[in-house]
Structure formats: structure tokens, C-alpha cells
Amino acid sequence: MATEEFYIRNESDEEARGPFNFEQLSSLAENGQVSRETLYYDVNQESWVSIGSDSELVAKLYPEKRRLTVKPKAKITSLNQAGEGAAPIEVVDMLAAAEGRSADTKDKADPTDAMARNAKIGLRGCTATLLISAAALVAPFVDKIAAGEYAAVVREPFVILGAIDFVLGLLLALEAVALYPFVRFRAMLGAGFLGMILWSRGEPTTLLAVLAGSTGIYLSTVFVSLGGALLSVALGLIGMGWFAYAVITQ
Hints:
By secondary structure, the chain is an alpha+beta fold. The protein is built from ten helices and four strands; from the N terminus they run E-E-H-E-E-H-H-H-H-H-H-H-H-H. A hairpin with a 4-residue loop joins strand 3 (39-42) and strand 4.
């Protein structure tokens, strides 16, 4: 395209308009006042030609616009299950669904994100509560362990339960949430076993502490609401912390 000034006219016009520079011609094209059928005077050919016949000029006046494309729908793990008999949503499912969210949606607000964060609060609280429980159950036998009396120590039910709590606490610290059903069983077993012993010893205050701590452990694996998670963690830490204090100060 050699010319820099343009004289234009429609095929039916007897008079031309111009001169226009390219910017002005482009503006006319954008406003619909110039089309591909509009004639302009080509000084090289010394004749009137249509704009549409000059591919270089057309490319500059009518650049191809980028096509708008619909972004593929992000694949999000669904927690909704059809049917009245569908199983309830578990904390394990909630955490797995949050992990399954794609990278391009992780910064968007989503109820699943909030519930997953709440579930993780319960996970951390449950982990800490189990480790406190392990320390409280093993504490009375530290002297025997230090003396190397392992054969006598491993037969103590408290030490066995404490070891289980310690292992579970470590595994939950690694986010092994698939163990939640076993953790719930441990919470109920611990409440019944320790509750029976403490009741027989006439220690109702310590018994209440164990029941509160065990309830906190259980509920920490259930709730995905913020209030429920915080309540569970508070019950667990306060209850087992109270139990540990009672054991250590005896």
C-alpha cells in the first residue's frame, strides 16, 4: 500500500471526498462510513479501485478480532448425591473435595473452601488433644520407662492406650484423615474405659475432664461448621488438658 492519502467515493458518487490519512480512513471504517465496496484512488494504478480489492489495506482497516472463547468448566469434586438414601457428607469427603479443586478456581470464594478450613481446624485440634492424652496416660509410668522396666510397662492398659493415642496423633499430623472412624472408636472406648476406672476411684472431676476430652476428639472428626469445629477443639483441649493436669499433680 504505497499511498498515504486517500480520496474516496462510492461507486454512484460523481465527486470524491478527501484527502484522508490512514487514521481518518480507519475511523470512517469503524463508524461504518467506509466499506469494502468504497472506492479509493490508487495512484499506482491511476484508477479507482475498491478497498476490498486491496488485501493489505483491508487487513489494516479490518483486523481480525480475537474470538471470544468459553473457558472450559473447571472440574470440581461434587459432594452432592441424589436420592433420599444418599450417605451424609463426611469430613474426609470435605477435605478430599477441597484438595480436588483445580488451580484456576482455588482463589474463588466457595462454600467448600470454608468447610474444608473448618474441618482442618478440627483436625489440628484432634491431633493436639490425642497427643495431650498420650502424655497424660504415659506420665505416671515415666519412672519405670526410664528404669528400663519395659516388660512391666507394656502390660499397663494406660500405657497401651497412651501409645495408641500417640500413634494416632502422629498420623493425624500427617493428615491421615482416613483414620477418623478408628479415632471415633478410640474416643468412645477411652471414655468408657477411663470413665469406669475414675468412677471406681471416686474422682468425678477427673471423670468429667475425660468425658469432655473424649467428646471433643469425637466431634472434631464430625463437624465442618466453624462453630462446631471450635467447640469440639475447645472441649478436647480443655478436657484432656484438665485430665493431664490431674494425673501429673497426683
